[in-house]
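user:
I keep going back and forth on a fold encoding question. Separate attempts, laid side by side, tell us more than any discussion would. Would you put together a sequence-and-structure record for a protein of your own picking? Write it directly below this note and I will take it from there.

assistant:
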Amino acid sequence: MNKIIKLISAPILSFVMLIGLTSVGNAETTVSAEVGFIFNTLFFLICGFLVMFMAAGFAMLESGMVTSKSVSVICAKNIGLYAISGIMFWLVGYNLAYGIPEGGYIGNFVPWSDASALETGYSDGSDWFFQMVFCATTVSICSGAMAERIKLWPFFLFAAILAGIIYPIVMGWQWGGGWLAEIGFSDFAGSTLVHSTGGAAALAGIIILGPRHGRFTKSGVPTPIKPFAASSIPLVTIGVFVLWLGWFGFNGGSQLALGSFADAVSVSTIFINTNLAACGGVLAAAVVTRLMFGKTDVVQMLNGAIGGLVAITAEPLAPSPLTAILIGAAGGVIVVFGTKLLFSYKLDDVVGAIPAHLLSGIWGTLAVPLTNPDATFSAQLIGVVSVNALVFIVSYFVWSIMNSLFGITLSKEAQAKGTDVTETGVIAYAIRD
């Protein structure tokens, strides 16, 4: 019996000794450098897994929002862009962002290689993976906005440019220690650096691309819903819940450490504020659509969740729970009015990515000084304007060049057949008479 007890207790005691608890004071736990390295690396990897799962959420959301004749292409775009983002971020993106000189503008064009050291506090590979899935998220934002009329391979080409060059440059301005970090710009997990970047690139794309054939009347009024009906609202809902789940990795992982009492408390606070902001976005969109249109728009509620999540991403740690709800609620309201704004300019954003990511991202970034005393409105404004201006201008130029060289918009006839037929030859849903 004693042997059994020793056998069971030995590994338990060893584990306790490993994680050390070498001293406890001022409500903070100190562990050895190696144990901190292990915890932080594991934290990066787990949060990275969650953010990767957002790729599935985007695929579900977009597949449900397009018509049933364009679902296979959405699936192809989402798995394709993830693969492209992974390769491009390894090939050039990571060091373009993190090879930047202090206060500089651009890093170096060399592939990533592992340079792990105990002094860093986490495995270099875990950081690469965590940052790579952020890159893929940025590219995913573009996919749904331009759905049902863009050619597949031009989109893949743009995905490579966005993942390998455009996103890493603006990312490096802040997270790589570039010039925005130098002036005091603050964007905790990427309301601007990720979400507005994806939204600005998508806005440039839909301007060049034009709306789906028949989407607007000559007077600019959106056509009745039937020709453009979403293929599956339940699938959209599941997609949003998957994104909501992934966002805990997105924002929580941006604490960048889980090796101390303070870090654990901070991550918990971030989770709470992230969740409450999404709740605020949902309910605000529900109330506003009911008051404005006499009906509660479930699509706007779902996008309201995204808008709330995007808004809190710039600063999920400092706000109180009530403030987080209000920040998220404002994001939900922005989604509703942003959608009407796009309609007024006859801009066809199939999934509502631009209101949810670009506009809510701008709001969330500008709201940071409301709760973070270290941030200034002037630095936030400079960051928002510079990032979105660069991304929009470069993206507009790239889309324009591609359009002039080989065209990016499917013909009227191809759109009528459906992109599943014309682009992949794989039909997602059986056509019924």
Q: What stands out?
A: Residues 10-27 have pLDDT under 50 and may be disordered. The first helix runs from residue 2 to 18. The CA atoms of residues 285 and 332 lie 5 Å apart. The domain at 42-424 is CATH 1.10.3430.10 (Ammonium transporter fold).
